[in-house]
Amino acid sequence: MTVQFKLPDKGDPSDVLQLFPNYNLQLHCCRYWWLQHWEFKELSFPYWRIYHNSCEGAVILYNGKEYALTPDKIVMIAPNTSYSTRLHNHAIPETGYALKGGRINASVTEQQLLTDRCILHLFVHFNIGLPYDNISHGVFTYEVSDHLKKKLHVIKRHLKYEHTRFSFYSSLAIQALISDLLSGLPEGRWNLITRNSRILKVLNYVENNIGKELTNPILAKQAKMTTNAFTRLFTEEIGTPPQKYVKKKRIDQACVLLHHSDWSIDEVANKTGFADRYHFSRIFKVTTGLSPAKYKKEFEMK
């Protein structure tokens, strides 16, 4: 977590320094697709997701509850939340998935797509960094106010004509939408994973150095503690040993890169701190149940 210090301006009646927590917004993608199939038994990714559909017919299933995606609702899903999806009354496959869709553009009208029983689906993927990406799992729904409706209109209008480059105005609309939804979460949801300043420093170090060597002695040095004392404190505060946490963060970052970049598996392995492609592939498959190549093929954004 970055904290910004604001020095009092000349003439400011207050001489008290103000502390403002800062989050690091990383936008991975923003797309507007038509869908005829969207049946997944399990989706779980290490980043936030926003969904808004311009018509009825799609459902998210989470913790035994169905969340209908309708024009008057926006859904936001916290990182690492496990959920299922389906369109209409389509059966969800026991293995694999059913996905059929593509980008909505100006060459076809939305009415034509609706006539073909397509779902018009806006989605945004993003992270906001530690400690706020560690919020408890959940699916959150919001009423589409006139204020939010204007932002959705700006974003969708842009995506119909251009899907690779965003204007400053449309980018602001995306970021404002994210800020509005995040600020709508209950305050209690933002309780930090730990309030120990030494452990928070280590978490930030891991986040910013995921491609480097991150042994317990190196992390303990960041906390200015002996290795044994640090390992005990970290495990008590976070609920998992340091190296298990580091491995999860490496795999989380690998998932983001495989999903949202055109980097090769070798490049992803190197960027996330694995010794080589083979070591990376073995750990990745044990953790996710898929090889990196299959994961990239199934989830890479086009």
Automatic annotation (TrEMBL):
SUPFAM superfamilies xref list: Homeodomain-like
InterPro entries associated with the record: Homeodomain-like_sf, HTH_AraC, Tscrpt_reg_AraC-type_HTH
Boundaries of every HTH araC/xylS-type domain copy: 200-298
Keyword check for Lipoprotein: no
Pfam families linked: HTH_18 (PF12833)
Residue stretches in coiled coil: none
Keyword Transferase included in the entry's annotation: no
UniProt keyword list: DNA-binding, Transcription, Transcription regulation
GO molecular function: DNA-binding transcription factor activity; sequence-specific DNA binding
The protein, known as: Helix-turn-helix domain-containing protein
Taxonomic classification: Bacteria, Pseudomonadati, Bacteroidota, Bacteroidia, Marinilabiliales
